[in-house]
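RESIDUES AND SHAPES:
===
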Amino acid sequence: MGVVYSAVHERLGRPVAIKVLRKELSENTELSSRFQMEAELVTRIGHPNIVAVYDFGRLPSGSLYYVMEKIKGQSLRSRLDKKQLSPADIVQVFGPLLSAVRAAHEIGVIHRDLKPDTAASEENTA
């Protein structure tokens, strides 16, 4: 649906990730509303295992974007490709994940896009 860029906040000097919805999708009322709602809900959840959203807007091109906390890490897929997870590894990985999902569920949010293949360190850079 879009692309995530690695950047540095100009005034704060803080590393951030910028998620940009493709222009043609930004013109779709339903998808643009969902994208904006995603940014707002992430902020409402306010959980330590969910990235913080710092800003939201529309680029001159018409594409919607939001700016979020940049985290370092590897995808679950790349970790599994290296070795099978031990029981301790499973607790280390899934404990925080399930805590975050629970926090979302507590405010009525159901995450529809959990996947093992994405990590902040593997996304696009600009």
Remarks:
- The radius of gyration is 16 Å.
- The chain has four helices and four strands.
- Confidence is low (pLDDT under 50) at residues 120-126.
- The first strand starts at residue 2 and ends at 8.
